[in-house]
Amino acid sequence: MVRAGAGSRAVLRLRACMRLSATALAVAAFMAAGGGPRKAVAQSTLAAAPTEIAAATVPVPTTPAEPLKKTRFVIALERRVDYQVQSLPNPNRVIVDLPTVKLQLPPSLTGQPVGIVSGFRAGLGGPGKLRVVIDVTEPVVVEKSEFLAGGGNGPVLLSLEIAPAATDMSSLVQAAASIPTAAVQQASARGARQPPVPRPAERPEKRAANAYKPLIVLDPGHGGHDSGAMRNGTVEKEVVLAFARTLRDQLRASGRYRVAMTREDDTFVPLEERRQFAEERKAALFIAIHADYATSRARGATIYSLREAVASNLAASARRQSANEALSDSELASLKPIGRQGPAVKSILADLAGRELESTRDRTNIFARAVIENMGRSTNMNENPDRNAAFQVLLTAKVPAVLIELAYVSNSADAAQLRSEDWRRNVSRSIRTAIDNYFSHQAARLPM
């Protein structure tokens, strides 16, 4: 008997407090013989009163011509419960997740495996959850899991039929041919599904290539006829483009992100189009990159996000716009037969849009703090690096957006850093780390 509880310190105590009457509780190895009935090769039974269980070990077929070996694993439970079964590789095992319930497993195996099962154990799988782990000798699939028919108020038996995962075409054909047509039709009628066959592990770079990658838009300021700030032999439009290219290359090399730039060369892009560029592509982040100028001796990096009052007004305006655009005239007309619901529906949709805007503002604040924290490890920061402004490119309610003033071209030390390739690599690396930290935050992983 296995009893699990919050105070058990994950230690399961075996107790023979469940009396099993004339029921089978065994690890039984059996083989499927080319479409014929399954022959039990080893099994153990339980007498009316004792809880002692005997399990036998049998030779395992080793030649390709012999049928695929299968193993039945039976767990005794005090009652029927909802459960989940999955087979996992590396190491090869079958996992059974159950709610907290009294259960009993066969005695531990000694020596050789029984069928395809080499061992098993039970333990806590989480608060109020129990987990049974069945170790197997090779990759497997669970062909069937079901409660066996039983009578009376005694325990119920959960039966798992475990089979090797076919690794070649001839084995697959043989396994498919051995399943009776009636069984296939019956399983289809019940809506039964085959658990997934374990797949070979993918290389990290291949797995990363197939994973979802958020889009990050980089916006190098100025360009074309607009040179931006100029001092100490440093031209803003040139150094910010060079920095954006370095950051772009590092982000792409990580394999975790897609990156787009509002300009790739010395081209002027209007401010409104820069913001629309990010919104139309549903970017996960918008980063405007600039260099600052001051008449004082100021130096260091500064991070700007949208001023709170401006963000609030923008959110209110977006709510009104969402309400006005939520339903077309034809859609409103279709609501008339069921009553005056148009205004209510528009109000609900506008409220949802407002919540989305609040989420965007929260994400912006999270990212701005991450950039300030990480950039400070690779470059000088302004005395007051966390600032708010109403810059045109930040006036978006749809995309988390910040503007980074990398340094001051008016400061000779800062200007020299802006022209340094090593400095650009180091600071880009710190911003990439800030982006990694941002996307590890729960709020950033939620859909936009």
In short:
With 448 residues, this protein is an alpha+beta fold. It has 11 helices and 20 strands.
| Rg, alpha carbons | 32 Å
Q: Could you tell me the strand content as a percent range?
A: 25-35%
What is the CATH homology-level superfamily of the largest domain?
Zn-dependent exopeptidases
Write down the domain tally.
Answer: 2
Number of helices: 11
Q: What does the oligomeric state look like here?
A: single chain
Mean pLDDT: 73
Q: Termini separation (Å)?
A: 49 Å
**Extended strand count:** 20
List the defining traits of the structure above.
six-stranded mixed sheet, 448 residues, Immunoglobulin-like, disordered N terminus, single chain, 20 strands
Question: Describe it for me?
Answer:
This protein is 32% helix and 26% strand. By secondary structure, the protein is an alpha+beta fold. It folds into 2 domains: 2-190, Immunoglobulin-like, CATH 2.60.40.3500; 208-445, Zn-dependent exopeptidases (Aminopeptidase, 3-Layer(aba) Sandwich). Strands 3, 4, 5, 8, 11 and 12 form a 6-stranded antiparallel beta sheet that branches. Strands 16-13-17-20-18-19 form a 6-stranded mixed beta sheet, with helices on both faces. The longest helix is centred in the last third of the chain and has 34 residues, at 342-375.
